[in-house]
Design goal:
The protein has 218 residues and is of the alpha/beta class. It contains six helices and 13 strands.
Length: 218
């Protein structure tokens, strides 16, 4: 089973979306940036749906009965705030019955420029025996994902866990894959470089700022 799905290796509209998300001139249009992230979430929801289990049942039509299928397990989508909200909206377009949790994780910087990941807020439904999807546009070091999963453990044991990111560093992918070998990762592109300050290069910048405007630094 493939655990890392790099969508840039496929021929699809992901290439056009990534071009517009990365392009410094196009991405400065905030509504357009959010729209492209939302489209990316839609594509990932569809791709994930191919890997889920379905059960058969009979349903009534106007002319008789039809043998159809539906998802066999509930889905919970947890965006990491605030940047993950745009992907979350796109995934809900394709998975409208999914439940939602919300995680606020951010980089707390010190005077030397170093940082640690802080979780300031977490609310989530029961995830036991459900499909859990974590959405975060940028997977840099993997620390936010790791801490989020640690905190979510008290909400139950999911049947499967998916991570959806738009851009990831190779280092972050390797870290998550090594620490959580059973988790399936969907990513739009994998960039080789992670700077000393843990920024993905070439990346696309701060996805939260590009979606919702710049924030004051801590």
């Amino acid at each position: 089973m493939i655990m890392i799905h790099d969508l840039s290796q496929q021929n699809s509209l992901v290439h056009q979306i990534l071009y517009e998300l990365r392009n410094v001139n196009i991405q400065s249009n905030r509504p357009s940036f959010r729209y492209n992230m939302r489209k990316y979430g839609q594509i990932c929801a569809y791709e994930i749906s191919k890997l889920l289990d379905y059960e058969s049942f009979l349903t009534e039509t106007t002319l008789g009965e039809a043998d159809v299928k539906k998802l066999s397990a509930p889905i919970v989508i947890c965006p990491i705030l605030r940047a993950g909200l745009t992907i979350h909206e796109g995934m809900l377009d394709f998975l409208p019955d999914a439940e939602s949790g919300f995680i606020s994780a951010y980089r707390k910087h010190d005077s030397a420029g170093n940082f640690e990941i802080k979780l300031s807020y977490l609310t989530c439904p029961d995830i036991d025996k459900k499909i859990l999807i974590l959405a975060d546009p940028m997977l840099a070091t993997g620390a936010s994902i790791e801490q989020s999963l640690t905190e979510l453990a008290s909400y139950g044991t999911p049947l499967r866990i998916f991570i959806v990111s738009c851009i990831a560093s190779k280092e972050g992918i390797d870290y998550i894959h090594k620490k959580y070998p059973k988790i399936t990762i969907f990513v739009g592109a994998i960039d080789e470089e992670l700077t000393a300050k843990s920024y993905i290069v070439p990346g696309l910048g701060d996805a939260g700022d590009l979606s919702y405007g710049p924030k004051l630094q801590d």
